[in-house]
Write the structure tokens for this entry.
Amino acid sequence: CKNLLTFMHRYVILLCVLFLAGCTDQLRVEPENSLTFGNITKEKDVEALVYGVGAGVRDMVCWNALLQVEKGAYADEADESRRGARMLELEAGTADLWEAWYQVIMGAETVLSHVDVVEMPNERRQFYRGQAYFFKALAYFDLIRRWGDCILQKGGINWEPVAKTPWPKVCDFAIEMAEKAAEILPPFDKLTDCNGNTMFSKSTPCQGAAYALLAHLCAWKAGGKYFAAEVDRNYDEKELWDMAEKACTKVIESPLYDLVATPEEVCASVLVGNSKEGVYETVMKDYYNEVGKRVYSLGTDYVGYPVRPEYGPGVVQDFTLRIFTTSVRKMYPGADTRKYAYFYDLDGMDAMDKSITGGFAYPYKERSVNITVTGTKKKFASFNSNRIWWRLADIYLLRAECRVHLGGDKIEGAIEDLNTIRKRAGAALYHSSEDNGDLQMTVFREREKELLVEGYRYYDIIRNGLDYVHSFLEGGYQTVTQQDCIDGAFFLMNKSIDFKENPLMRQNLYWLKRQ
């Protein structure tokens, strides 16, 4: 499978280089070259295009992957280099290119423009079409979480200058794409390549992955109503919470996904990749020659000793994001085994001299790594795990969140979902006295605990509302107004190059006022 993916990646680069290499100015995409695309005559050619789009997602998740999620990553202390962004200073809007995301979108459009003209069984045609829909929805989902408003290409490619579209409308389109993908993609156990071989990678879009994406899209729009412009806020968020809840249920009730038995297995297996708990992920494991040292995991900010052999215990005091052992014990009280799975030798390290440890815990959730050896010296090279977009525990807790918002007879189901995750960890089951009876807060905190260091928390805070932003983020986030949020305080600026040949482009208003 690895060799095939590598071959297809190289093949599609040769096939599509003129088309995908330059997504900048407006989108910076070059017109289709007839010599390049005239050779797409067989199903394997279309399959190669799809593999190329999937390879583009790998670039997407590596491209300044931590610019957003670091802002809300749980930490008691942060390195000075991250403080500005975490406090909503100008660094929080650090300009970034959105090229990689639009390469995925344009690659998906290329698949859609060729899938109907190549002879193949209709079932296969639908498979490739569904994957293209999924990739478009995925790229737009990540775009609106990072930049908010962005350029929307609904069908085909518009070569004329295009203004940015408000994020709720982009989200509507992505929801439509995810719904179409969920309708026509096969379940995971029915995936086959063009030669009839079973496909085993969780990086291949399938029905379950499409439902997970749909759930997160609907939840994002529902929870984000307060930072939508008034003209774009005339929608019923309850309908969206209901759609998200139903999509979560599709994943949870599928026999193809299951929680692993323990938090230890989450670290040792699920976060490495291709486990029964994984729903959708991007292949990074065993691709060091292609991925290299590119960052795609928050583990980069947290994980030192003993995962990185060149470091001793004292390095914990200098790491980018730091968590006190006392905070870990408070977060995971009693018999909750996550504190021992997610942190290395919690009790032993806590007993060490505080002049060495600083009183900090040693995150151990990300631990699969590539090591280079020079003589007798070993050195950390990169993490060696997939980029997990969604795992089943996330979907359970997202459904719990949806059910809290739906209220009524859904509340009992929300508590059941919450307890499903707690039971796995050996944690105390829910009691109505928690968080003064605020079940929404309890679900948020459970996501914070279960998904620690996985990159969810910044988006979870935003989705839960302005009170959560004021309470759980730092600095300027604690006083940001609703109008600031509408103007784009949560999102990134565009680089100046994005304006070069598109006079209709406009900068994020919040950051424009502060430049």
Remarks:
- The chain is about 50% helix and 5% strand.
- The first helix runs from residue 2 to 20.
- The radius of gyration is 23 Å.
